[in-house]
Amino acid sequence: MADDKPAAAAGRRIIPIAPAPAGKDMVSLYEAHRKVYPRAIRGVFARWRWIMVFLTQLFFYGLPWLQWGERQIVLFDLGARRFYIFGWVLYPQDFIYLTGLLVVSALSLFLFTAVAGRLWCGFTCPQTVYTEIFLWVEKKIEGERVARMRLDKEPLSAEKLVKKWFKHIVWLGIALWTGFTFVGYFSPIRELGLAFLQTRMGSWEVFWVFFYGFATYGNAGFMREQVCKYMCPYARFQSAMFDHDTLIVSYDPGRGEPRAPHARGETQGPDGAALGDCIDCSLCVQVCPVGIDIRNGLQYECIGCGLCVDACNTVMDRMHSPRGLIRYTTQNALAQRGAATALLRRVLRPRVLVYATILAAVSIGLLASLVTRTPLKVDVVRDRAALSRIVAGGRLENVYRLQIMNATEATQRYRVAARGLDGLTVSLDDDPVEVAPAQARWVAVRLQIPYGSAPPGSHPVHFDIGAEGTATQVSEPSVFLVPR
Ligand code: SF4
Ligand code: SF4
Fold first, then answer.
1. How far apart are CA 421 and CA 423, in angstroms?
2. Would you call 480 helix, strand, or coil by DSSP?
3. 345-368 pLDDT tens trace
4. Residue whose CB lies within 8 A of the most ligand 1 atoms, among 285, 301, 303, 309, for a mutation test
5. Ligand 1, atom 8, residue with closest C-alpha
6. Given its phi and psi angles, is residue 213 left (phi above 0), alpha (psi -120 to 50 degrees) or beta?
7. Whole-number Cα distances in Å, 414 to 119, 400, 430, 434, 472
8. How many angstroms does the Cα of residue 30 sit away from the middle of ligand 1?
9. Is 72 helix (H, G, I), strand (E, B) or coil?
10. Looking at per-residue confidence, does 247 or 137 come out higher?
11. What are the tens digits of pLDDT across the range 124-133?
């Protein structure tokens, strides 16, 4: 109040700050979450979704259990810094292949999105796949959509408790198995299984099994469509890859509107106005895993799963109307009502052909370089402690350390030679250098030239390392220093 007096004296009005009353005019910045209860549906897209669930999970859960000779077929051994993929042993120096793989993945995503929108999201994304599996478990235990909605509204009872507990136990089982499989790509899975049974898993392995497991449990059991709507960046930038010739799931308003509930064969409403094909049954909304109404037009939440297509086709069959009121089509085709052949011609547009050509070129290049890859890596490091010295016999010597990495699965014996200066000789403690399968070894190598045979300065030389009994040969550059 003491502060108000000078303001009042100056003729200024004081407006007190008071909290706004909570009432119906309040607008929340956050939308209240509505749980989505997707209804099960049969149809072409539903079947394809299950085929993709089966194939992706067969691959993910099954692959680490397969053997390649004495070892796991795919193993990312981070501790030893080796990646074993089928017959290849990759070292950190092979990082270029990982880069190539990422480029191929990105280009594939661009291509498939340009052709058919969010195919990845609707059919193969792990979030979609695990949500589908968790939903299947939920349906088996709690019943169909209406039963699940009723159960959630019911007060707590013994039956509800048993169903909920059972569901969560099964979910946790799947989630932890997923976490275990994930860790099995980085730590030999058979030994990991044995360690798990004997409760002697390492602390990092336990951490990652539970971390990945709970991420699966949380994302597929609770977050579900919210991951796609609010967390996934792909949903945000996909529109940059869409154009009016991209195949997307669309409702045909020209055919469906005006919508109204009506019986089979009815073409006019009670007021005599013509009726569209949509009977406003809302089945397309009930089956949608993200809970949207595709009749409101293209929405960023739509993952392109096609379940609303299956649902609406079922309704159209019952109404004896042609299928395809909701269908995979393009915005141009919908606007121009063009024929299917014209639509396909537009799908194969220059942008798609450019993506496809680049993708094919990069994939072929990557595959060719992997197939023709030399299974030997060599790093040359100059010995900084002894740059250049004169040794017995009046010769000038430079010392190097060579890391020889055997990227085969058999013991190899390597010969080291050098070239680039007159009278250059090589000496090693071990010759040939024997390196165990998929192992690396450091060796000291001394290069010598007759003193005075080269002028002072830095001279380029090359190390040639070859595996005995094979055509494998690697050449690595370095320099030979001659002091003043
Ligand atoms: S609108 Fe249709 S295609 Fe899009 S997410 Fe929903 S059910 Fe799938
Ligand atoms: S399923 Fe088909 S008929 Fe039913 S509301 Fe959706 S668009 Fe209309």
1. 6
2. strand
3. 777 788 899 999 999 999 999 999
4. 303
5. 305
6. alpha
7. 50, 16, 10, 6, 10
8. 23
9. strand
10. 137
11. 999 999 999 9
